[in-house]
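As described in the Methods, two query proteins were run sequentially through the folding procedure within a single session, without resetting any intermediate state between them. The first query and its resulting structure tokens are shown here.
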Amino acid sequence: MATEVKVPTLGESITEATLGQWLKQPGDPVKADEPIASLETDKVAVDVPSPVDGVMGEQAVSEGDTVQVGAAIALIEAGAAAATSATPAVADRTAVGQAEAAARAEREESQEDEEPQTLSPAVRRAVLEHRVDPSKIRGTGKDGRITKDDVLAAAATEAKAAPAPAPAAPVDLAPPPAAPRPTGDRHEERVRMTRLRKTVATRLKDAQNTAAILTTFNDVDMTEVMAARSRYKDLFEKKHGIRLGFMSFFVKAACLALRDVPSVNGSIEGEEIVYRDYADISVAVSAPQGLVVPVIRDAQDLSFAGVEKTIADFGKRAKDGTLKLEDMKGGTFTISNGGVFGSLMSTPIINPPQSAVLGLHRIEERPVVRDGQIVARPMMYLALSYDHRLVDGREAVTFLVRIKEAIEDPTRLLIDL
């Protein structure tokens, strides 16, 4: 008897996904709730678990196909004997899959009897990209799990161990041919655009076509924040178990500025404007499949430690590919830190239906005038892109000035000014 594996509910308003990778092949034994396939949605990668124990049977779709929520994508046969009763083609694939499973089991036993483990979507992509054998990698993550860094380290080791390239052929001194030809290796590769990348492209273009986007700039002297961080970072980490970064200062400063300039925290819905008395701050973090924007809920009520812990958790789960759809829902305002990549200045694009996004950039010493003297100070450019249909220029400038005042005098964050 076979059990159908169906595409699970993927979240509000999401009706389809792309089958990114089969994690189990016909003939592989599977356990209940063990992932057998990875789906790519508009926002995150989602694993499809097996509903029962058994043997992987026929696969109804191929990698790269679009599947609907509720559609059957595979069969789980009730035991090895049931798998042999499938069609001849499936039975052949089952035999091959069983042989591969036996080979994998033999390799795993030879590695100090380590238990097999399920790889996260990010790790699976890295394994496929670098073509390394995960069974030969010793994991450094929790409970010995393999991380993306482990895969990259293994790939680097294999590259160093690879034989040196053969010496170059003698130079041909004959006259060149009449038609010039390109020299060296020239390769092109065509890959299917991921669902996330397609969604990002569509949403960003829609934002440009719909909103009246304008960007205003300011700069901020980071001297006081850097001094406060340097003074308290060790005590902060000892007490809260998390490092004190700059993002928590900017998140708390944004909460104060959003309270003073509520239109920046609002949105246009039809012919109505929605104003909010809370701040759900979206923070852009880097993931293997691109930038994602999980949301810090009720940031106005969190402490500095609460903000830092939330951001650190988002970063780790984005790297491991375990962020959930619920983590990305909502958001009233976005902070994007391009400075971590070395950006000096940018004009970020808003994330609809939000009306504004704050862009942070790299810190560098620049000459400024203080008390009539030219001095070097650590400066950062700030950029606020906003929907001019809702936010006036005066309000946008006022918002940035509030951010600047709070960062240049962090005491304001403590006494709520």
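Immediately afterward, the second query was submitted; its sequence and tokens are:
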Amino acid sequence: MSADLADIAADPDLLPLDVEEWLSWLATERGRARSTLAAYRRDARRWCRWLDGRGVALAGVREADVEAYIEELRGGPLAPATVARAVVAVRSLHRFLADEGRAAADPGADVATPRVPSGLPKALSEAEVSSLLAAVVGDEPSARRDRAILEVLYGTGVRISELVGLRLGDVDLESGLLRAFGKGSKERVVPLGRHAGAALSTWLGPGGRPALVPARWARRGDAEAVFLNRRGGRLTRQGAWLVVKHWGSEAGIGDKLTPHVLRHSCATHMLDHGADLRAVQEMLGHASVSTTQVYTKVSTERLFAAYRAAHPRATLPHG
């Protein structure tokens, strides 16, 4: 067992220097997002612990070790997507070590990444969305804010991180447009729609956001935040998530509702009503149209389900 791995066994938060340098390379040379780096750090820590338990040094990993690790992960409680990401992290790490001359060979070069089953996004019905939006009652600042959050998430399909990152200068109510910054800080302009625009206007007007503005801003940048918490700071991702879950429970759909479900619902309902696939791709900020195509499958399955349930000649006669 290498000294680095022995240290990790004593302190689970430690990682070998080679791994830290790989993570630094991913951040500086590859531009990986902070959330991606955090996930890879967890994957690397799990991998190093596994190696430590078998007395294998990082530089001495063989292809058989990687394959045994994958089999163990696949037999455990992790989701297929998590297993696939863990394998990608291990392969990336060892490719880096080989390229940098810190290992004699790349043991993951010929190891395939496990395939992830293509699960269908869970979209709400249009009636459920209407019920959710109608659940927010009242005219106090928090109600105005929550109504705007739900309307914008459903009306534009933005991610929850994009929503809480909105600045006042990103909203053009007169033109009905919203500027969102997606993965990799890629900018796109999204149409607001009448209901989302009206909800935002009410929130940003007197009695809404101005009522939560503090006498002194606690952090730089909060003054430009579109959505504030009750203390006058920028609403966090977790705070917005709790808003969505709260009103989902009020509407009786809390067990199936998350912010991402509203994004799924936005895309699915647009395609249900004949929207062009590439227009939806651009609106959601998908890098590839293949990511958006899963929603066409959702729409098709909903169509067939409705047909089987409603058409008198949709099923075969019995007997």
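The mean pLDDT is 85. We note this only descriptively and draw no conclusion about the first query from it.
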